[in-house]
Amino acid sequence: VQLVESGGSLVQPGGSLRLSCAASGFLFSRYPMSWVRQAPGKEFEWVSHIDTSARTYYADFVKGRFTISRDDTNDNLYLQLNSLKPEDTAVYYCARGARQYTYDDPKYRGRGTQVTVSS
Hints:
Elements: E1 2-6, E2 10-11, E3 17-24, E4 33-38, E5 44-50, E6 56-58, E7 66-71, E8 76-81, E9 90-96, E10 108-109, E11 113-117
Parallel strand pairs: 2-11
Antiparallel strand pairs: 1-3, 3-8, 4-5, 4-9, 5-6, 7-8, 9-10, 9-11
């Protein structure tokens, strides 16, 4: 399982970013996929996940601002981040659980991409 995130950057409050995750080494379309993040000095927290039918789920703190999507043809996962706030500053990770077709806690994740929201 390989997950490679990209797209993180320094952005001003209110700005937008699009994160990407290139997946390989497994049948991408069979797995729910998620984004998690870790802010400095804090625990990992779940941000969003998308199931194999493209149903989406979001943490309350990003609902209405972030959009998760997937491209099963090219094995890519995306996270569109809008209306960014300084508290969104974190390393964002693409993650996958152990079970096909059923969401479960992440077992695999990539190396992450840094998102910094600051003026």
